[in-house]
Amino acid sequence: MTALKFIIIILGILFTTTIRTKALVTNVSIPRLFSYQVVQQPKKDAGFVSLEGQRVTEFGQALIYGGSRGLLADNKLAGSIFSSVSIGNIITVDYADGTYEDFVVTRLRHFQALSPTSPYSNFIDLSDGRFYTASALFYDTYGLTGKLILQTCIVKDGDWAWGRMFIVSNYLDPYPIASPDINRKR
After folding, report:
1. What is the pLDDT of residue 18?
2. Kind and range of the H or E run holding 142
3. pLDDT-flagged residues of the chain (< 50)
4. What pairs with residue 107 in β-bridges?
5. How far is CA 43 from CA 10, 19, 106, 145, 147, in A?
6. Per residue in 115-154, pLDDT tens?
7. CA pair distance 4, 7, nearest whole angstrom
8. Residue 140 sits in a domain of what CATH number?
9. What is the tally of structural domains in the chain?
10. Which domain covers residue 149, as residue numbers?
């Protein structure tokens, strides 16, 4: 094996561990739990979340400023099932070009919003009581490069925006020593 071929293989391994950033997401699913169509946010409306039945919304700001892919769901609709997601679940993301990627859920995060209806609310981490500003929570969650994040609101005492839930998942590479040119098609 030549040194150049070895370097190309190593670079291929490095590049296959990041999610696709330019492909349009069309569907997200967890076997036996849900399968939802994904809609895009309008370009100048970062607060938009689809209110159409069983659909989730791709959070444009996550990929632009954070480095991960975010999917938002209203907790009265598609997001109502997110509390059933467990660590170890496999999430499949389908793209418009017919390819797909799998992710494994590695972390579930729950926060109380101190100003529930404000997009600039501060937050308290329910696992350890740690305080977060809105921007600190954004970068601590969506700043995890190459992750898939599902987000919905937490309802408590009739307040549908009381808190936020984040489902953090890592890319599951089916070809850990393969070329980055391999695309998984259905």
Report:
1. 45
2. helix 134-142
3. 1-19
4. 168
5. 37, 21, 30, 22, 22
6. 999 989 999 999 999 999 999 999 999 998 889 999 999 9
7. 5
8. 2.40.260.10
9. 1
10. 3-172
